[in-house]
Amino acid sequence: MVNGSLNLIRLKIGIIAFTLLVIVPFKSINCQEKNYNFFYRIYFKDKGTNTINNFSPGTLLSVKAVKRREKAGIPVTDMRDIPVYTGYLNQIKSAGFRLHCTSRWMNTALFKTETGADIGSIVNLPFVREVRIVKKPVAKGNSNDKLSFSTRQDDLPGYDQPVRMLNGLSVHNSGLNGNGILIAVLDGGFLNAENISSLDDLRSRNGIKGTYDFVRNNKLVYGYHNHGTAVLSVIAGYIPESIEGSARGADFWLLRSEDTETEFPVEEDFWVAAAEFADSLGADIISSSLGYCTFDDPLMDYKFPDLDGNKAFVTQAANIAASKGILVINSAGNERNKPWIRIIAPSDGDSVLAVGAVDGNGIISSFSSAGPSFDRQIKPDVVSQGVSVPVQVNTFTVERSNGTSFSCPVISGMCACIMQAVPKALNYEIISALHSASDRFLSPDSLYGYGIPDIADVIKQLQDKYTVRPSDGSVASPNPFKEELKIAFREVPDKLKIEIYDVNGKLVVCRDYLDYISRTLIIDDFRDLPNGIYFVRLITPEAILVHKVIRVNNQL
User: Given the DSSP bridges, would you call strands 398-401 and 389-392 parallel, antiparallel or unpaired?
Assistant: First the structure.
């Protein structure tokens, strides 16, 4: 009991310390009450006296983040997880620079000033490796409101075609909706997301776990722009016969990392800060309908050779996020009918799942950015519908819009369903299975990548690897159980009906799956039922299987 009490105390202390370390640095920086015109990214040579031994995992990562890394066999903490050395930050502050955010992964800090500053004294500090100006006043480019999108009323193709195209309706009909999966949505704002009707269920079940604005350093994200609102509606929205979200059961953190008024590399720093925050929280997926190539100051533009999968600042961070076990999914970009033409960072990342856009008939759109990356990776990785996709930004009206901004969240949501179906599958295994389950796997190209994936096939591939086939028709476990009961099938049933009877023979639960694709099923209908003995009757086209199970409460 003493050891148990000590462990509980340590856990509580770890949670408190994690909260202080992860949340307070952002909250302690005030909103941009002044007009900061100059932003500087400062690279440090080392992390000073900070070492891994100075920090316990609980002070750096949530319990969920630790579990994600343990699942993948990733070190729970390494030097990239260690914060930037405070002593270095304080010296730069003393020179009149204001701290905006830091990146522990990249060992950088973003500072800002109202007027131009002499950076010579900063560059010459012994612990500074490099200083880059990542935003300064210039004549505005053509990127104002770069996330702008048009909407229209339309009935074709069908409202559920984005999901249907991926064989996703069969996935949803099998009870897979992303339940238990945490998605971090990085975007430019979520104007009206707290009101739109397609998210009523998401809000009522408290599926939005939190918000943060890394541009302004506060929690207010329900403003600025409706692009993130549209993206969120594609994943989580639901209105019968109007919009079919690809992962209506997932949970979300809404993170604003994009300043839509201008376009500068500083937004990469915001993106990286948001990605690190998502990692600390334990996000399973980062869904980013953002990207970077050209800026308001042409001298800051990327060149195509910079998109080699490892060079762009944001791409390096996206790859690091993937190395932490997160599935990073990014829009390929809408550049093919513009001068840039190519994919945008971080979709060039060698560990990033880049998503292009096709129309409802599976034909590549005129705007979907072309691959490959400069190092000849097949990009985009896959495509999904990005033309005439149902979105909602107005309170009660569902409309249609175009863009890889919307094909990306379709795939993000379906990946949440994959993770729900195969909890042991790792991020890189999901990407590999998506490739091999796509219709152009044997002949990928620079527009479609590997093509349109069949999500049911992805689940089959991964379940064949991770799910032990029972010797009998099905197995129910654990037994006794507390809240959830898992059924594993020897053969995947095409259809499935579940009847649960109490010990008196009363039918207490009945579920019908007219289209079933999974080798496993989680039954969570016992939450409101008393403890005791139950009989689970599984009716498939091939057989009727019965399991006697015992539900116990958490105190037993």
Answer: antiparallel
pLDDT tens column, 213-249: 999 999 999 999 999 999 999 999 999 999 999 999 9
Helix 404-421 with 427-436: angle, nearest 10 deg: 110
Please, what is the Cα angle at 137 between 131 and 143, to 5 degrees? 105
The two tokens of residue 469 are: 């086939």
Domains of the chain: 2-135 (no CATH), 161-464 (3.40.50.200), 474-551 (2.60.40.3080)
Mention every residue, 6+ apart, whose C-beta is less than 8 A from residue 214.
26, 101, 255, 256, 257, 270, 271, 273, 274, 277
Q: In this structure, which amino acid lies at residue 512?
A: D
Within 10 angstroms of residue 167's Cβ, the number of other Cβ atoms is 20
Q: Is this model's pTM higher than 0.70 or not? A: yes
Q: How far is CA 505 from CA 464, 501, 535, 537, 553, in A?
A: 35, 5, 8, 12, 21
Please write the tens of the pLDDT for every residue from 317-344: 999 999 999 999 999 999 999 999 999 9
- Say which residue the tokens 């990605």 belong to: 275
Q: What is the CA radius of gyration of the chain?
A: 24
CA dihedral 524, 196, 282, 164 (to 10 degrees): 60
Q: Which two tokens stand for residue 15?
A: 């949670």
Task: Name 537's bridge partners.
Answer: 499, 546
- Two tokens at 284? 């399973």
Q: What is the C-alpha separation between 331 and 286, in angstroms, rounded?
A: 11
